[in-house]
Backbone:
């Protein structure tokens, strides 16, 4: 986001049909809450299209890609890797350290669907629990991004949008942009 | 949560099959992030069971209910009603006011599935956008709760659990409780 080191989100695992909406929501949440890029499994082309379509209409910069080798994305990552899991360290205990790391280099956030292989736990610099309770990878990602950026993501400008929503106390207001 | 006025989440709309996981994730996110209760549409009995099952295993207090009259839940609510929508006022502009309201009385958070009827926008004390971008009702709920409670939800104690997860830098550790 802006001039900061990149934040990318890697979605691990996707069962077509069953996971379509969750994977799409991971991608849209990554975009809306300040990540620069999301990498989806190569069988998630439908989710990729939805996220790309939203980016085209509501703006970017934001990139959505498919990858056939998520493990290489993790092992080749030129920065720190954060794996979100209910078994990990408490976010409130490690967030400040991760924010410091992000001032220096790119962060990859790994978000699992089904059971995550053990080597991902080992490859991650931090396994982080947004609570140690079972809930939702979308919820975990959202809270993590909001805390990583400390709310700056809510103020970001969108470029290349053909429309924008004007905040409104009641009702809906959408305006075309000049772009 | 604890001795504070109640926070309940109302899920509006549910298409069985298609919305099953999203509705379940709304329920689990409400529980994990400090709400006291979730109300689901009466055709979401499968989601209700999943949330009740997780509460039994991982603890509470947390209540999951079905309702056939979501509009009465809204109109009869003895406190403030917050409707989460991408068209609403920016969370960063209204959150402090809502936190003050919550010190005085119970808060109902309304989370839509499909298109939300206009009377809900009118009935709400606040229509709130967690960004004015399209993303995920689960993500919006998660960020809203984390900001409403200012992180206190991450420290809550769970009662009546038969197991608990011990935070761990690498791997998984789950222990039976004494209860």
Residues:
């Amino acid at each position: 986001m802006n001039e900061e080191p990149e934040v990318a989100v890697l979605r691990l695992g996707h069962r077509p049909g069953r996971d379509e909406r969750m994977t799409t929501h991971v991608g849209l949440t990554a975009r809306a809450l300040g990540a620069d890029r999301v990498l989806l499994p190569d069988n998630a082309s439908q989710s990729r299209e939805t996220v790309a379509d939203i980016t085209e209409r509501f703006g970017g910069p934001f990139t959505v890609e498919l990858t056939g080798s998520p493990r290489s994305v993790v092992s080749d990552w030129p920065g720190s890797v954060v794996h979100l899991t209910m078994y990990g360290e408490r976010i409130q205990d490690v967030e400040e350290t991760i924010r410091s790391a992000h001032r220096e280099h790119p962060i990859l956030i790994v978000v699992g669907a089904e059971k995550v292989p053990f080597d991902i736990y080992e490859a991650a610099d931090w396994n982080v629990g947004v609570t140690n309770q079972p809930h939702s990878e979308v919820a975990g990602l959202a809270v993590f991004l909001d805390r990583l950026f400390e709310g700056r993501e809510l103020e970001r400008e969108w470029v290349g949008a053909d429309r924008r929503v004007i905040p409104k106390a009641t009702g809906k207001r959408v305006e075309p942009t000049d772009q």
In short: The mean pLDDT of chain A is 96. Strands of chain A lie at 7-12, 37-41, 63-67, 80-90, 107-112, 126-129, 163-165, 174-176.
